[in-house]
Amino acid sequence: MKHIMMIGFGAMAQVVWQNLPEGLELSWVVVPEHSITKVRKQLPEQVQVMASIAACKQVPDLVIEVAGQAAVREHAEAVLAKGWDLALISVGALADEDLSLRLQQVAKQHDSHLIALAGAIAGMDGLAAARELGLHAVTYQGRKSPQSWQGSHAENLLDLQSLQAAQVFFQGSAREAAMLFPANANVAATVALAGLGMDDTQVELIADPAVSRNQHTITATGEFGEMRIELMGVPLPANPKTSTLAALSVLRQCRQLVQSIQI
Ligand SMILES: NC(=O)C1=CN([C@@H]2O[C@H](COP(=O)(O)OP(=O)(O)OC[C@H]3O[C@@H](n4cnc5c(N)ncnc54)[C@H](OP(=O)(O)O)[C@@H]3O)[C@@H](O)[C@H]2O)C=CC1
Ligand SMILES: O=C([O-])CC(=O)C(=O)O
């Protein structure tokens, strides 16, 4: 049996926990102190629910962060400093260059790895491969329903309640997008990491009352040729900002622990 630690226990974590492949067990959950009692009631007794990494006295086979960019800032260094591998879903936290450099340094020092999950998008394998021979341009467009942008900085830029037609409300770099929309634009940072970097990846964000899916479009040109990836993701009912595929990408990473062919 392999043992998983989860940081966060919200909409995505619940899907991951309920679908963990055979041979894997959730053994530790890290949540803010104020949530411990609530989360404790949702999990079997053998799962240790705690507020800090230091409270775990054993060694997880994998730590997965499904909690948000603030949780990466709070816990990632402690995980990597223990020599444990950390799979990140809130990849946008790495738009903070100081944090990103510090985490890479700690991981190197302690022989641990920071795994940036593909999350709600696809094609990161091809994009990262294409980079090897040089990319010319990479763009990411995120289109979601007004409901999926609720509670984000988009509320300050347009009237989501009365929107009648699609509206572009952000154009800029992946770094800006990931920092301004921490619960909606982590994938912009993921595209940037796989491709042209945080400052040279162009991002456009759109609120569209005509869509019910979370739509992601990635284009890239380079020495390899051209690619265009379109994805219409079903939002999680418990959190429409989050696409179901993001939870499934966490499960895929977990499955790598128990299968011989890495795919
Ligand atoms: N890469 C991708 O494709 C995607 C990435 N994401 C990222 O995943 C995150 C989680 O998504 P989702 O599950 O839908 O969000 P939820 O808001 O449903 O759940 C977040 C969970 O994390 C907990 N949490 C918050 N802060 C901390 C912290 N500092 N330490 C430990 N736990 C913490 C919350 O606890 P409490 O209830 O107490 O706040 C809650 O249990 C998003 O915030 C976003 O950053 C989301 C979608 C796609
Ligand atoms: O789930 C999605 O559609 C993407 C998302 O929220 C993010 O990148 O933070």
Automatic annotation (TrEMBL):
Keywords: NAD, NADP, Oxidoreductase, Pyridine nucleotide biosynthesis. Its EC number is 1.4.1.21. Residues 23-114 form the Aspartate/homoserine dehydrogenase NAD-binding domain. It catalyses: L-aspartate + NAD(+) + H2O = oxaloacetate + NH4(+) + NADH + H(+); L-aspartate + NADP(+) + H2O = oxaloacetate + NH4(+) + NADPH + H(+). The keyword NADP applies. One of its GO terms (molecular function) is aspartate dehydrogenase [NAD(P)+] activity. This is L-aspartate dehydrogenase. The lineage of its organism: Bacteria, Pseudomonadati, Pseudomonadota, Betaproteobacteria, Neisseriales. The gene is nadX.
